[in-house]
Amino acid sequence: MAPKNRLFLGSFVHSKALDELEYLHNAVVCVDTSGTIVAVERECDEARAKEILFPRLGWDMDDVEVVTAQKGQFFFPGFIDTHLHAPQYPNVGIFGNSTLLDWLNTYTFPIEASLSDPARARQVYTRVIRKTLSHGTTCAAYYATIDVPSTNLLADLCLAAGQRALVGRVCMDQFSPDYYRDSSPESALAATCESIAHIRRADPSMSLVRPIITPRFAPSCSVPLMRQLGQLAAETQLPIQTHISENGAEIATVKKLFPPSATSAQDDSYAAVYDAMGLLTERTILAHAVHLTEAEAELVAARNAKVSHCPCSNTALTSGAARMRWLLDKGIVCGLGTDMSGGYSPSILAAARHAVLVSRHRAMGRPGAEGEREKLSVEEVLFLATRGGAQVVGLEGKVGGFEVGMEWDAQLVGLGMVDEEGNAEEDGGDVDVFGWQGWEDMIPKWVYNGDDRNTKKVWVKGRLVHERK
Ligand code: GUN
Ligand code: FE
């Protein structure tokens, strides 16, 4: 069925600034057949929209789909997961007491290698896309594996399901097991180019799915491989994703493997290595950034590279508590990542909650104003989950909010209204709203107690991609 023009009615909530949510009530948002927002009006209803807006938009009165947020429901921008590993999805929750380097060898490389089986890859990737969409993730920056056909399949499946995505074929030619590594920098580069070409053919306008250059992390990439990937990024202007400064043993490995004599970097810091390889750019997504030094953070800021904060993973693998306030104060653009399966949760709403909690752990033991400053607010983590994420993945101004010219990547959130007798009027999961508690209370209730039961409908570029039954 051809898409219709759509009129969304009700309450809309989105981020206006890092620490400010905007509430639009009794509002309408008009979305055209291409999925673009063409009008936003406050204090408006269907009749008034038809009278005032439709003539201006040239819309046919009788050929419009109307979607109304009911009482206890609101529209919110779709979430952006700026860092996750699709092939690791079967492993969520399985990490025992491991830390990064033994976790990679024990759990992660075996599961990724197993996805070169196309049937298995199809099963896992279908599931991870469905699962993240059901949690309101309208855009995801995915790492796939070193296997090209299954990486390409992931991109195809995202396109078919309608999830916006960046899909990266993972590069790793050293410091990795024999059964799961690139045999040379040249073969890694060729495989990367093959996957890029496929994704470009699959979505020529790159309106939904884009390729992303993916050196796994410095330890698993040789200097020649990193240099060639940096060059490729410069030539193609494609985005880059990698990991940085997640764990102490990892950082020590970088220092050992990449002395300045080997890289011509200014020093042996993790960020300087990437910079010397041409991998620290404004289109680079750096996952974790837990233990950056002052000089490294300055370098990241100077290059305008972006950071994906992964609080669930950083806690699960006991990597550390990233200094989010410090990064934000430096003007570094940040978003949130689930980092499945380093993180166990598929939900960016949960990542937002975890970001709040981790910031409070940072506040503990830092009395007074310094501790208070560490705390991230509900408003701030929702910004990171939407607008911040959009900046991280290069989609600023295109998604992450409700503004004319942006695309309709959105979720309809429903909270559980409870009547006088205490009976739930709809399935609000763990969110019970007694009477009416006002919007300033509803949103934190959703952040702290919400889950996919509250995600009633999800759209990407105007297309309905998930509906909770
Ligand atoms: N560093 C290198 N590879 C990985 C990975 O798959 N997950 C995480 N969390 N860190 C990594
Ligand atoms: Fe990761």
TrEMBL record:
Gene Ontology cellular component terms for the protein in this record: cytosol
This protein's pathway: Purine metabolism; guanine degradation; xanthine from guanine: step 1/1
UniProt keyword Hydrolase, yes or no: yes
Top-level EC class: hydrolase
BP terms from Gene Ontology: guanine catabolic process
Cofactor names: Zn(2+)
Keyword Metal-binding assigned: yes
Matching Gene3D superfamilies: Metal-dependent hydrolases, Urease, subunit C, domain 1
CDD domains found in the cross-reference section: GDEase
A GO molecular-function descriptor: guanine deaminase activity
The enzyme's E.C. designation: 3.5.4.3
Domain Amidohydrolase-related span(s) in chain numbering: 76-465
Signal peptide residue numbers: none
UniProt keyword annotations, A-Z: Hydrolase, Metal-binding, Zinc
Alphabetical list of Pfam families matching this protein: Amidohydro_1
UniProt catalytic activity: guanine + H2O + H(+) = xanthine + NH4(+)
Function per UniProt: Catalyzes the hydrolytic deamination of guanine, producing xanthine and ammonia.
Family per similarity comment: Belongs to the metallo-dependent hydrolases superfamily. ATZ/TRZ family.
Record protein name field: Probable guanine deaminase
Species the sequence originates in: Achaetomium macrosporum
